[in-house]
Amino acid sequence: MTSLSDIRSTFLDFYARAGHEIVASSPLVPRNDPTLMFTNSGMVQFKNVFTGMETRAVRRATTAQKCVRAGGKHNDLDNVGYTARHHTFFEMLGNFSFGDYFKDEAIPFAWELLTRDFGLNRDRLLVTVYHTDDEAAQIWKKVAGLTDDRIIRIPTNDNFWMMGPTGPCGPCTEIFYDHGPGIWGGPPGSAEEDGDRFIEIWNLVFMQFEQFEDGTRRDLSARSIDTGMGLERIGALLQGKHDNYDTDLMRALIEASAHATSADPDGPGKIHHRVIADHLRSTSFLIADGVMPSNEGRGYVLRRIMRRAMRHAHMLGAADPVMHRLVPALVRQMGAAYPELVRAEALIAETLRLEETRFRQTLERGLRLLDDEMARIPEGADLPGEAAFRLYDTYGFPLDLTQDALRERGRAVDVAGFDAAMTAQRAKARAAWAGSGEAQDARIWFDLAERHGATEFLGYDTERAEGVIHALVQGGAEAGSAARDDEVLVVVNQTPF
């Protein structure tokens, strides 16, 4: 069986032979994109190259990029463990051209790698293109011999990628694998496209335009390529699996969880093991990249992921902390490709042990409170928002942790009631501050915190970073602008100062 490690190496070696420099994965905390919580795709570290803000000697690159999607726009946390292809942590394989080659090389590269090096059956592959991209369609016909019915034209943004409202953009082509009529689902663009028969395995983005604020576009002087293929997804396909959690790497972590908890990996606790295996990866890599559990920003997201995994270990009957005991298994699986895991192994294990030790007593009290609350409400009713807020405010249970616990019982939370309780609590804090003898204009900080969240401190890890200016404050009030020599306070989303 081809291991995920072998697949990763095969991909990188293929593009290295084609003149691409193998570039190491960037950290999960992006320093060049302050709009992102975590690095969520392979192109993040090259964003400034694509926009022209940065130049590199390398014009062709390939990477295996570690990614996390567990907060903000890209948030897969709630689905992890319950589906075949959702993860908080995953690896994105990609190849990039910075004004060097374009569609006429990117498409042949992809077809050769998939059908020759990976050995996929070409008769099972089909593609989508943006509906006006005749060039890409013709190249697919010429290179792969695909007929019109296997080149599906998509008229939506699913096949047109944009970096933002303005800036580089362009059409993309996605490659799908057909698992056959025995599995329900239809081809992309059909009413049954959400089924599991046709699975996307690779996305090739052709950056050829620049979009402006008035909606117009013009051709880029240097057209570029950005591709992304999830290692877990292609790994499942090449290993003959239909579930990412059945791949060799994930299976090893699931079995380590089963051994540590003395629970059957394929028994009633199967979902618990899957959550633990996924969250072990995301928490360990985040800690290795300098994120530590805290009550705000990235540290808060890390703590949420850790506590979710710890609750699932508790559900398996673990009497003692478990997560730290699984770190050696992760290092064995991924330490060669990501040496930062090896360097940080002791720190990762100790951080997990301390966090789980602190959380266990809180968890048991919180779950008892949840049981008491559920006993008071009618069968099938949602948990009142005020009760969910007490779990959060008193026991440190994030809303998603309560939702996850209730999901297993087929129940939900009154989210609107939770939000109302949170708003009422903030109003009380605001009133207490106003009467504390401090300046009345200090209320501005509550407004800004509610609107934008806390500023994240990066000074432990770097002395330089980019930030988004959220607000200017002058004379205790928010200012729309500032002139030369004005004295203002600048509120940013992240800073090393």
Verbal overview:
With 497 residues, this protein is α+β, with helices and mostly antiparallel strands. It is 40% helix and 19% strand. The chain has 15 helices and 16 strands. Strands 1, 2, 5, 6, 7, 8, 9, 10 and 11 form a nine-stranded mixed β-sheet that branches. It has a three-stranded antiparallel β-sheet with strand order 14-13-15, with helices on one face. Helix 4 (134-144) links the parallel strand 6 and strand 7 (151-154). The longest helix is centred in the last third of the chain and has 32 residues, at 345-376.
- Helical proportion, percent range: 40-55%
The total strand number stands at 16
Q: Which assembly state applies to the chains in this document?
A: single chain
Distance between the termini: 50 Å
Question: Which structural class do the helices and strands define?
Answer: alpha+beta
Contiguous low-pLDDT stretches (5 residues minimum) are none
The total of helices stands at: 15
Largest sheet: 9 strands, mixed
Shape: globular
**How large, in whole angstroms, is the Cα Rg?**
25 Å
Mean model confidence by pLDDT = 89
How much of the sequence lies in strands comes to 15-25%
What is the compact description of this entry?
This protein is of the alpha+beta class and 497 residues long.
